[in-house]
Each structure stands twice: as C-alpha cells, then as structure tokens.
Amino acid sequence: MSDTIFGKILRGEIPADLVYEDEHAIAFLDIQPQAPVHVLVIPRKPIVSLADAQDEDRELLGHLLRVCAQVAEAEGLPEGGYRVVTNIGEGGGQSVFHLHFHVLGGRALQWPPG
Ligand code: AMP
Predict the structure, then answer these.
(1) Which of 12, 20, 27, 104 is the most exposed place for a label (fewest CB within 10 A)?
(2) 43 CA distance to ligand 1 centroid (A)?
(3) Catalytic-residue membership of 24
(4) Mean pLDDT by groups of 10 residues along the chain of 114 residues
C-alpha cells in the first residue's frame, strides 16, 4: 500500500473533495489550488511517479489522461484552455510521491512554468 498522503486519501483515512472515481483512478480538488480549477488525478495503484511506471501500466496511464480530459470537460475548461502536468522527483517539483496529474485551468496560464 502507498504510504503517502494520497494513499491515506485512497484508503479513506483522510478526507478529500472527490470529483471523480472509478475502479482505477480518483480525482479530487487540490488543497492548495494554483488556479480557479485545480484537480489532481491519481491511480489507485501506488506508482511513485511517471518515471516509475512500467510497460504493464500503459493502459492505466492512458486511462488517467482520459480521466484528466473528462474532469476538465466536467469543469468547463476546454473552451478557455487548460493544462495537465505531472511533476517527477524533487527537482521536478514533486512533493507527494504517488503519481498524480494536475489539471489546471480557469485562468490564463503562463509558459514556461517556474
Ligand atoms: P506535487 O508537488 O506535484 O507533488 O503536487 C502535490 C500536490 O498535492 C500539491 O499541489 C498539494 O497542494 C497537493 N496536496 C497535498 N496534500 C493534499 C491533500 N491532503 N488534499 C489535496 N491535495 C493535497
């Protein structure tokens, strides 16, 4: 089992504002939103990061991206544009070591990120 804060959310040990869930993934509001809409999409499987995913996870990774797009659609983001990003490792800005995709939108987003 994952021993991260997201593992605790998956096990129902701490609360989260869920916006989506299925057999393989859940999505919930980020506790420190960086945009008007900031949702995290995570697999139930405790993969540390994209760098730790294996060939056997290809279908799951595709599913997670589809969930990102569906969450964005449900939040009304496609018209104004939005961003999906995953941070990898401390140097990449990762602070929770359970794979997650950030879905950010609702404001104009700058590029490149810091
Ligand atoms: P990262 O820095 O890419 O690993 O992203 C981790 C994200 O998890 C950050 O945006 C945090 O604000 C968010 N986060 C941390 N703890 C919680 C929590 N309990 N519920 C929701 N989001 C959280």
Answers:
(1) 12
(2) 14
(3) no
(4) 87 98 98 98 98 98 98 97 98 98 97 90
